[in-house]
Amino acid sequence: MSAEVSMIHPLGPKTVEDWLAEEQPVDGSRLELIWGYLHMTPPPGGPHQYAAGELFVVLRAAVRAADRSDLTALPAVGVRISTPFRIGIIPDVAVVSVPPDRVNFAADDLVLAVEVWSPGNSREERDTKIAAYASARVPYLWIVELPAGKPARFWGYTLGESGYRQEVFATDGETVKAPGPVPVVVDTSQLR
To answer: Contact, 62 vs 93, CB < 8 A?
Structure first.
Protein backbone atom coordinates (compact mmCIF):
# COMPACT_ATOMS: atom_id res chain seq x y z
CA MET A 1 0.00 0.00 0.00
CA SER A 2 1.37 3.44 -0.87
CA ALA A 3 0.26 6.89 0.08
CA GLU A 4 0.48 9.83 -2.26
CA VAL A 5 0.80 13.31 -0.85
CA SER A 6 0.22 16.30 -3.04
CA MET A 7 0.60 19.94 -2.15
CA ILE A 8 -1.37 22.13 -4.50
CA HIS A 9 -0.94 25.85 -4.27
CA PRO A 10 -3.49 27.76 -6.33
CA LEU A 11 -1.76 30.29 -8.55
CA GLY A 12 -3.05 33.82 -8.48
CA PRO A 13 -4.32 35.71 -11.49
CA LYS A 14 -1.22 37.87 -12.09
CA THR A 15 1.54 36.84 -14.48
CA VAL A 16 5.19 37.89 -14.54
CA GLU A 17 4.27 40.20 -17.43
CA ASP A 18 1.53 41.80 -15.30
CA TRP A 19 4.08 42.33 -12.51
CA LEU A 20 6.54 43.95 -14.89
CA ALA A 21 3.82 46.30 -16.19
CA GLU A 22 2.85 47.46 -12.69
CA GLU A 23 3.90 50.91 -11.53
CA GLN A 24 6.52 50.55 -8.85
CA PRO A 25 5.60 52.34 -5.61
CA VAL A 26 7.10 55.82 -5.33
CA ASP A 27 7.59 55.50 -1.56
CA GLY A 28 10.30 52.82 -1.86
CA SER A 29 8.00 49.89 -1.07
CA ARG A 30 8.78 46.74 -2.99
CA LEU A 31 6.19 45.10 -5.18
CA GLU A 32 6.95 41.44 -5.84
CA LEU A 33 5.00 38.59 -7.43
CA ILE A 34 4.64 35.42 -5.38
CA TRP A 35 2.59 32.53 -6.77
CA GLY A 36 0.68 34.92 -9.02
CA TYR A 37 -0.24 37.37 -6.25
CA LEU A 38 1.20 40.85 -5.94
CA HIS A 39 2.99 41.20 -2.63
CA MET A 40 3.95 44.64 -1.32
CA THR A 41 6.45 45.13 1.48
CA PRO A 42 7.03 48.48 3.14
CA PRO A 43 10.15 50.47 2.30
CA PRO A 44 13.19 48.83 3.91
CA GLY A 45 14.33 50.60 7.08
CA GLY A 46 17.73 52.03 7.85
CA PRO A 47 19.33 48.88 9.35
CA HIS A 48 18.11 46.80 6.38
CA GLN A 49 19.38 49.29 3.81
CA TYR A 50 22.69 49.71 5.63
CA ALA A 51 23.38 45.94 5.62
CA ALA A 52 22.33 45.61 1.96
CA GLY A 53 24.49 48.60 1.03
CA GLU A 54 27.53 47.18 2.81
CA LEU A 55 27.14 43.84 1.02
CA PHE A 56 26.69 45.58 -2.34
CA VAL A 57 29.93 47.54 -1.81
CA VAL A 58 31.81 44.39 -0.74
CA LEU A 59 30.50 42.43 -3.74
CA ARG A 60 31.22 45.21 -6.25
CA ALA A 61 34.79 45.51 -4.93
CA ALA A 62 35.29 41.73 -5.07
CA VAL A 63 34.00 41.51 -8.66
CA ARG A 64 36.36 44.32 -9.68
CA ALA A 65 39.32 42.83 -7.77
CA ALA A 66 38.75 39.50 -9.55
CA ASP A 67 38.70 41.37 -12.88
CA ARG A 68 35.37 39.74 -13.77
CA SER A 69 33.95 42.09 -16.39
CA ASP A 70 31.33 39.40 -17.10
CA LEU A 71 29.75 39.98 -13.66
CA THR A 72 27.97 42.99 -12.18
CA ALA A 73 26.80 43.60 -8.63
CA LEU A 74 23.51 45.50 -8.43
CA PRO A 75 21.28 46.68 -5.59
CA ALA A 76 17.57 45.71 -5.58
CA VAL A 77 16.73 44.74 -9.18
CA GLY A 78 13.69 42.83 -10.43
CA VAL A 79 14.30 39.20 -11.37
CA ARG A 80 11.84 37.09 -13.36
CA ILE A 81 12.27 33.88 -11.38
CA SER A 82 9.53 31.67 -12.82
CA THR A 83 6.92 32.35 -15.48
CA PRO A 84 4.99 29.08 -14.90
CA PHE A 85 4.89 29.63 -11.13
CA ARG A 86 4.37 33.38 -11.53
CA ILE A 87 7.22 34.53 -9.34
CA GLY A 88 9.10 37.80 -9.76
CA ILE A 89 11.18 39.08 -6.86
CA ILE A 90 13.62 41.79 -5.93
CA PRO A 91 16.71 40.52 -4.11
CA ASP A 92 18.36 43.15 -1.92
CA VAL A 93 21.61 42.67 -3.83
CA ALA A 94 22.23 40.64 -6.97
CA VAL A 95 25.25 39.57 -8.98
CA VAL A 96 24.31 39.06 -12.61
CA SER A 97 26.21 37.58 -15.54
CA VAL A 98 24.90 39.98 -18.20
CA PRO A 99 25.40 43.70 -18.84
CA PRO A 100 23.34 45.86 -16.46
CA ASP A 101 21.63 47.68 -19.31
CA ARG A 102 18.15 46.25 -18.65
CA VAL A 103 15.18 47.07 -16.50
CA ASN A 104 14.87 43.55 -15.05
CA PHE A 105 16.71 40.26 -15.32
CA ALA A 106 15.96 36.63 -16.14
CA ALA A 107 16.60 33.97 -13.51
CA ASP A 108 19.41 32.57 -15.69
CA ASP A 109 21.21 35.93 -15.38
CA LEU A 110 21.34 35.71 -11.58
CA VAL A 111 24.54 34.22 -10.14
CA LEU A 112 24.15 35.35 -6.51
CA ALA A 113 21.10 36.61 -4.63
CA VAL A 114 21.32 38.39 -1.29
CA GLU A 115 18.28 38.67 0.97
CA VAL A 116 18.29 40.80 4.10
CA TRP A 117 15.38 39.63 6.22
CA SER A 118 13.43 42.27 8.07
CA PRO A 119 11.11 41.56 10.99
CA GLY A 120 8.17 42.00 8.59
CA ASN A 121 9.25 39.12 6.34
CA SER A 122 7.02 36.16 7.20
CA ARG A 123 8.41 32.63 7.42
CA GLU A 124 6.29 31.69 4.39
CA GLU A 125 7.75 34.54 2.35
CA ARG A 126 11.29 33.57 3.34
CA ASP A 127 10.73 29.90 2.50
CA THR A 128 9.06 30.78 -0.81
CA LYS A 129 11.93 33.01 -1.90
CA ILE A 130 14.58 30.43 -0.98
CA ALA A 131 12.66 27.72 -2.83
CA ALA A 132 12.21 30.02 -5.83
CA TYR A 133 15.93 30.77 -6.06
CA ALA A 134 16.71 27.05 -5.76
CA SER A 135 14.19 26.05 -8.44
CA ALA A 136 15.64 28.75 -10.72
CA ARG A 137 19.09 27.16 -10.11
CA VAL A 138 20.68 30.37 -8.77
CA PRO A 139 24.16 29.11 -7.79
CA TYR A 140 24.70 31.19 -4.62
CA LEU A 141 22.45 32.66 -1.94
CA TRP A 142 23.33 34.84 1.03
CA ILE A 143 20.92 35.58 3.83
CA VAL A 144 21.32 38.24 6.50
CA GLU A 145 19.14 38.55 9.55
CA LEU A 146 19.19 41.59 11.83
CA PRO A 147 17.47 40.57 15.08
CA ALA A 148 16.61 43.50 17.35
CA GLY A 149 19.28 44.12 19.96
CA LYS A 150 21.45 41.24 18.74
CA PRO A 151 24.41 40.90 16.35
CA ALA A 152 23.83 40.45 12.64
CA ARG A 153 23.65 36.86 11.38
CA PHE A 154 24.99 35.79 7.99
CA TRP A 155 24.43 32.54 6.09
CA GLY A 156 26.14 31.64 2.80
CA TYR A 157 24.71 28.86 0.63
CA THR A 158 25.78 27.01 -2.50
CA LEU A 159 23.26 25.27 -4.73
CA GLY A 160 23.50 21.48 -4.60
CA GLU A 161 21.60 18.73 -6.40
CA SER A 162 18.48 19.02 -4.25
CA GLY A 163 18.62 22.57 -2.92
CA TYR A 164 20.90 24.89 -1.03
CA ARG A 165 23.72 23.64 1.14
CA GLN A 166 24.92 25.92 3.94
CA GLU A 167 28.62 26.66 3.51
CA VAL A 168 29.14 29.30 6.21
CA PHE A 169 27.42 30.94 9.15
CA ALA A 170 28.73 33.96 11.03
CA THR A 171 27.52 36.22 13.80
CA ASP A 172 28.79 38.42 16.61
CA GLY A 173 31.44 40.23 14.56
CA GLU A 174 32.87 37.12 12.90
CA THR A 175 34.49 37.32 9.48
CA VAL A 176 33.99 34.54 6.92
CA LYS A 177 34.87 33.73 3.35
CA ALA A 178 31.45 33.62 1.71
CA PRO A 179 30.57 31.31 -1.18
CA GLY A 180 30.19 33.08 -4.49
CA PRO A 181 31.42 33.52 -8.03
CA VAL A 182 34.44 35.50 -6.76
CA PRO A 183 36.38 35.42 -3.47
CA VAL A 184 34.50 37.53 -0.90
CA VAL A 185 35.11 38.14 2.78
CA VAL A 186 32.11 39.22 4.88
CA ASP A 187 32.65 40.87 8.25
CA THR A 188 29.38 40.69 10.20
CA SER A 189 30.46 43.57 12.43
CA GLN A 190 30.14 45.81 9.35
CA LEU A 191 26.48 44.89 8.74
CA ARG A 192 25.13 47.14 11.53
So the answer is: no
CA distance 125 to 168: 22
CA distance 85 to 79: 13
List the chain domain ranges.
44-191
Query: Are the beta carbons of 94 and 109 closer than 8 angstroms?
Result: no
Mean residue pLDDT of the chain comes to 92
Distances (CA, A) of 90 to 44, 79, 129, 150: 12, 6, 10, 26
- Domain 44-191 CATH (choose: 3.40.440.10, 3.30.230.10, 1.10.357.10, 3.90.1570.10): 3.90.1570.10
C-beta of residue 91 within 8 angstroms of C-beta of residue 114:
yes
**Percent of the chain scored above 90 by pLDDT?**
78
Per-residue pLDDT, 9: 61
Tens of pLDDT, residue by residue over 101-116, are 999 999 999 999 999 9
CA-CA distance, 111 to 73, in Å (whole number)?
10
Q: Are 46 and 53 in contact (CB under 8 A)?
A: no
